[in-house]
Amino acid sequence: MALLEVRDLTVVFERKGEQPFTAVDHVSFEVEPGQTVGLVGESGCGKSVTSLAIMGLLPKRGARVSGTVGYEGTNLLSLSDREMRDRRGRDLGMVFQDPLSSLNPVVPIGVQVTEVLERHRDMSRKKAMVEAADLLDKVGIPDPTRRLSEYPHQLSGGMRQRALIAIALACRPRLLIADEPTTALDVTIQAQILALLKELVRDMGTALVMITHDLGVVAGLCDEVNVLYAGRVVEKAERHELFAAPRHPYTHGLLSSIPRLDAPRGQKLSPIKGSVADNIPWDHGCAFAPRCPNALDVCVQVTPAQEDIGGGRLLRCHNPVRPPVVEEVSA
Amino acid sequence: MLRYTIRRLIQLVGVVLVLSLLLFAWLRALPGGPVSALLGERATPESREALTKQLGLDQPIFVQYFKFLGRALSGDFGVSTGVQPGDSAMEIFLQRFPATIELSFLAIVIAIAFGIPLGYLAAKRRGGWFDNLSVGGSLIGVAVPVFFLAYVLKDVLSSALGLPTEGRQDAINATRVTGFFVFDGVITQEWDAALNALEHLILPAVALSTIPFAVVFRITRAAVLDVLDEDFVRTAESKGLTAPVIRRRHVLRNAMLPVVTTIGLQTGALLAGAVLTEKVFSFAGVGQALAIGFERRDYPVLLLLIIMATIVYVVVNLLVDLSYAFIDPRIRTR
């Protein structure tokens, strides 16, 4: 059975006097125990809202969440606030984007680690401090005992993200959600943090939902990838297949806009035209159509359905990119 | 930190010196003077002249100032001519200062005890009926003049509540130790005296607390609203922490810096409110002495009380600045 089973997750933001806005639209995906699943897309495609909905962290007022989020068979969306509070930090951990603003500036690092141990593992402060030092050591923070009494501003960006990872993994949750955990870091530190995440989820058997706009992160980490556009999953594939043969023009566009070392000299990068704001609503056609090089007339008239194209792949497109033909050796 | 404190205290000496000079000039620039105040309109020129000479007011003003300064340095601030004629200004200060401290302290405690929790609650329920009602209420709190509210409390509510409206304590046999009546009652274990003094404090303290309450409430609300949007509050939620821990450790601790600043400033402003409140409730504190002192042009008492008020104001705000370091570690390590 899947550890996390998201079915038709829909999040609609409603504000008085404004049109309701559907940020996440019938998103479904599964995460097996120990598996790493990527949610990929540009800013504004609904990745973060999806993660907050799973964690139950969306504001009570103004956000309408529907669908199901199954965790070991329990629908998290049906749980009370209190039950959800008991699970957050214990069964589900989360790492956020900006490690400086995500740590409380006036509370020592140690307390920010121990408070989650005290809450979910019934530890005394003293015992939790020993455990916290151990955790900081595990995420690669040198001199952990001294760091416990320091404040976030005394740590470097990479250290802070390590501390946040230690906090999220303190109670050994079976599922970790990482929302762009490397975006705010230097490139060299990014690689270190990704390696650390990879190692930790492998050692602890934690399932990881990796939210990112960076396909490099996906390539290094994810077993399976869901590409989101305007709140819907447009393509889902196993990592190698996605990179070898992207079918959705959006995925293809994302991949061709990455500089490659093995590309022929002088080849220009091809960016995706327009921006995420150039949308048409999904119920009038394909949201990506205005930016799509493959767009046909049907794309702005009929909403493409999600189809199973075999090999565990899902695709939502009227006119997909043709898979590259494997050249036959001529006789 | 020690060096910083010492530097601020040295600055205080300068502030007091300049202030004493300005005050000296300002008080004498007021129309009338102690002679007219003491003798009335119909006094003969001879008796006026005699009194002027006796009070030393016939000398040039700078001579008067340096004489005052010389005596002040040895702790002699002159003798009261109006508030309690014949008593030394210092005696009057020592007698009345504890009263005003007790009153202001209670007023600030009321303002904090209600302002911070209500401000937090209003922020938490932004836009709800409680928020709208309390924001409106705080506006009234700031806008209603202290003397009006004081009379409403005194004349309308006191009988319903059965609380005294005059003075600091009923004429009961109470031992005086420090001059803080409530405190004295507690340390001498004269509980009835302490309770009686406390009852006398309640109405004036409530009247005095309305403005600081409203200001503390609004600043808390605004600060909490800012903090609630911070990423680290979301992190705290993602850890599944209980609501009280998030509130205390993550929200309020971060929201306290502007609130503490405000409390410091309000403590200073309380003295202005105390003049009116003490007058209405015949409360024998510094505020009442200032009011009487101005009516009767009691130069020595006015000078001493205003200088002391300044020192209190500067010291309170120094304490506030020092408290930042305890609240925010980023200031401590700088």
TrEMBL record, chain A:
It is a peripheral membrane protein. GO terms for biological process: peptide transport. Residues 4-255 form the ABC transporter domain. It is found in: Cell membrane. GO terms for molecular function: ATP binding; ATP hydrolysis activity. GO terms for cellular component: plasma membrane. The keyword Membrane applies. InterPro entries: AAA+_ATPase (IPR003593), ABC_Ni/Peptide_Import (IPR050388), ABC_transporter-like_ATP-bd (IPR003439), ABC_transporter-like_CS (IPR017871), Oligopep_ABC_C (IPR013563), P-loop_NTPase (IPR027417). Keywords: ATP-binding, Cell membrane, Membrane, Nucleotide-binding, Transport. The keyword 4Fe-4S does not apply. Belongs to the ABC transporter superfamily. PANTHER family: DIPEPTIDE TRANSPORT ATP-BINDING PROTEIN DPPD, OLIGOPEPTIDE TRANSPORT ATP-BINDING PROTEIN APPD. This is Peptide/nickel transport system ATP-binding protein. It comes from Saccharothrix tamanrassetensis. The lineage of its organism: Bacteria, Bacillati, Actinomycetota, Actinomycetes, Pseudonocardiales.
UniProtKB/TrEMBL annotation, chain B:
The keyword Ribosomal protein does not apply. Gene3D superfamilies: MetI-like. It is a multi-pass membrane protein. Residues 97-320 form the ABC transmembrane type-1 domain. Keywords: Cell membrane, Membrane, Transmembrane, Transmembrane helix, Transport. Its main location: membrane. One of its GO terms (cellular component) is plasma membrane. GO terms for biological process: transmembrane transport. Pfam families: BPD_transp_1, BPD_transp_1_N. Belongs to the binding-protein-dependent transport system permease family. It comes from Saccharothrix tamanrassetensis. The lineage of its organism: Bacteria, Bacillati, Actinomycetota, Actinomycetes, Pseudonocardiales. This is Peptide/nickel transport system permease protein.
